[in-house]
Design a protein that fits this description.
The protein is of the alpha/beta class and 351 residues long. 39% of the residues lie in helices and 17% in strands.
Length: 351
């Protein structure tokens, strides 16, 4: 079967009509050809159980006669079929809390628009997803099978098969970050707030994967004493889409902190706010400015310092980002006297 995939992909890549049609897609042209072969020979004949491991089908290596550099460049990359009815036989309830209907399969992004959805990872090249679009039979709303609203309504054993956490599966971004990647970045973002460093880590993972793939391809040709074909350029056909930049990663984590697409249905922002609101300020309190906290916010916020109000127990009762350390008008203190303690502000203009 690996030989079949290799020959079928090589045949499609030799077709100028196919390459012209998919030349501007996000996925590499070889991955688009592999997805086309899988769709025609596996998904439509309903043979997914024979080839897919739950949601995943890895591009198999062909050790017999394949010397096509395009096919070799995608060996080991993962193609995901996010279709919960096909993979697990599930009827997904409508994410709308006021609706009692269930979602029904409509079509995939590969069958309609001939596109694949990327999931970036620190292990190397992105995983590419064939995503089912589903329609509620009651309210007629449409949802993608990889959205957080859908994932949070699935049983845990099924949702865990998808490599993206439900709180980070946003419908309005061009790519997702894998669960293992967001778990690593969550510690970095909390401590350093460095979105650019996180972005470079994912970019470098793709670069290193390409170098390993290049050495593997050339060493195989050397072993067989054959002339290697022209290798795939890193920023040409091998990489057609790039991981999110630093600002986008920061926006993703800000949105994830306010997302309630988790089993307990309360966002981290609301949970932390309630914890702060439980702090009491009785008798003695102190106020001060701190500057290290500002490094975790983007410069466009315009914060010069963080004004803090501490209690006699050493806890922080209130925090507000302020444009300066001046106390003219005492707006921050007035706000503190008129509001319950333990509230975290993003910005307090004119403080």
């Amino acid at each position: 079967m690996p030989k079949f995939f290799c020959e079928a992909v090589t045949k499609l890549l030799a077709d100028p009509t196919f390459t012209k049609k998919h030349n501007d897609k996000m996925a590499p042209i070889a991955m688009m050809a592999f997805a086309e072969v899988v769709t025609e020979n596996v998904i439509r004949p309903k043979r997914t159980g024979e080839f897919f491991d739950q949601l995943v089908l890895e591009v198999p290596p062909c050790l017999e006669a394949c010397d096509n550099p395009h096919y070799h460049s995608i060996v080991g990359q993962r193609l995901l079929l996010v279709d919960w009815e096909t993979s697990h036989g599930l009827q997904v309830p409508c994410p709308d809390a006021t609706c009692t209907g269930h979602l029904q399969n409509d079509r995939t992004n590969c069958s309609k628009n001939k596109t694949l959805f990327p999931t970036c990872d620190l292990n190397g090249a992105p995983s590419w997803c064939i995503v089912m679009t589903m329609v509620c039979g009651c309210c007629r709303r449409r949802f993608n099978a990889n959205n957080g609203e859908v994932l949070v309504n699935l049983p845990d054993y099924a949702a865990d098969e998808h490599p993206v956490d439900s709180t980070c599966a946003f419908p309005n971004y061009a790519s997702h970050l894998s669960r293992s990647t967001t778990e690593v970045f969550s510690s970095l973002m909390l401590t350093y707030g460095n979105g650019e460093m996180c972005s470079k880590l994912v970019h470098n993972a793709i670069n290193r994967a390409h170098l390993r793939r290049l050495k593997s391809y050339l060493s195989r040709a050397k072993e067989k004493k054959t002339r290697a074909h022209v290798c795939i350029r890193k920023d040409g056909v091998h990489v057609k889409t790039y991981p999110p930049l630093g600002d986008t990663i920061r926006d993703m984590f800000d949105e994830a902190s306010s997302s309630n697409t988790n089993p307990w249905r309360i966002s981290d922002y609301d949970r932390h706010t309630r914890e702060l609101q439980s702090v009491k300020c009785e008798g003695i309190f102190c106020q001060d400015h701190t500057f290290q906290l500002v490094k975790n916010y983007q410069k466009r916020v315009g914060a010069a310092a963080a004004w803090t109000c501490g209690t006699s127990t050493g806890e922080i009762a209130a925090v507000a980002l302020v444009p300066s350390t001046k106390t003219e008008g005492k707006h921050s203190f007035s706000w503190c006297r008129t509001r319950p303690p333990g509230v975290l502000l993003n910005m307090l203009p004119g403080s």
